[in-house]
Write a structure and sequence with these properties.
Layout (H helix, E strand, L loop, with lengths): L2 H17 L7 E9 L2 E15 L2 E12 L10 E9 L5 E10 L2 E10 L4 E8 L4 E8 L7 H9 L8 E8 L2 E17 L2 E11 L8 E10 L6 E8 L2 E11 L7
Antiparallel strand pairs: 1-2, 1-14, 2-3, 3-4, 4-5, 5-6, 6-7, 7-8, 9-10, 10-11, 11-12, 12-13, 13-14
Length: 252
């Protein structure tokens, strides 16, 4: 093998390493959401490869809805989406549409990373129109949803934090993600060692969050979320992974 061929092989291997992802196209994670002792809702995280304005992206989506019997008490219909470039892992668009009891929220960000600007649209329900604002964009910014998938790409060590800049909800903030500890818990994949992380968000998270949120990720190359524990506007909840499709781990 010539030196030129060796160089090409090295470059190919480097390229493979840079584009490797901890999740698969079509990954679908379904969580049972428990309020106290009641399984009151279901949340789904989906990852699908597609294109956005001609650019290959991951279409990331979280949806949450209460069970029919729980709707009269506190109806939830949440949908959060991100269109995340595959080549440089930067978001092109972020949308958050929440219905939690009487609370409503509909917000959109579109990102122009070349110009370092973002267009922020906040829907005014009384006026039935969007209020639009142009904002500066910090280089390398993520949205709230893509930031979580970005964290799954990182090397995580207990006692150390990783930092990511998040631009969403008309705000821009440097966010710390603390890696607290390793903990072995029961999951649908069996007993798994997990990393317990905590995003230290200055504002709201995916839902109308009112307190800290802890996330258990499998301590492997996939970093699959298997449990979430959080306080939100309507109380505290625990979400446990109940089914998974197109993931790297085997379900016994």
């Amino acid at each position: 093998m010539t030196n030129k061929m060796i160089l090409v092989m090295i470059l190919l291997l480097i390229g493979i390493g840079l584009t490797a992802t901890p999740f698969r196209d079509g990954e679908k994670l379904v969580f049972t959401v428990r309020y106290g002792v009641v399984n009151a809702a279901e949340a789904t995280i989906e990852t699908n490869g597609t294109s956005f304005q001609g650019v290959p992206v991951w279409h990331l989506k979280i949806s949450a809805r209460t069970q029919p019997f729980f709707d009269p008490f506190f109806k939830i219909r949440d949908r959060v989406e991100s269109w995340w470039r595959k080549d440089n892992l930067l978001p092109l668009k972020f949308s958050k549409n929440l219905q939690e009891g009487n609370y409503r929220q509909y917000r959109i960000h579109t990102y122009n990373h070349r110009a370092n600007t973002t267009t922020y649209q906040k829907y005014a329900f009384r006026q039935e129109t969007f209020i639009t604002e142009e904002m500066p964009l910090v280089a390398g910014s993520q949205d709230i949803l893509s930031a979580f998938f970005w964290v799954r790409h990182q090397s995580l060590t207990p006692g150390r934090s990783v930092f990511v800049h998040i631009t969403a909800d008309g705000r821009s903030m440097r966010t710390e993600v603390k890696v607290h500890r390793r903990e072995t818990i029961d999951t649908i994949f069996g007993r798994k060692q997990c990393l317990v992380i905590e995003p230290k968000l200055a504002g709201e998270a995916v839902f109308k969050q009112s307190g800290r949120i802890l996330i258990w990720l499998t301590d492997d190359e996939y970093k699959i979320p298997v449990k979430l524990d959080s306080a939100v506007s309507f109380g505290s909840f625990v979400a446990t992974l109940s089914s998974a499709q197109n993931v790297g781990l085997r379900i016994p």
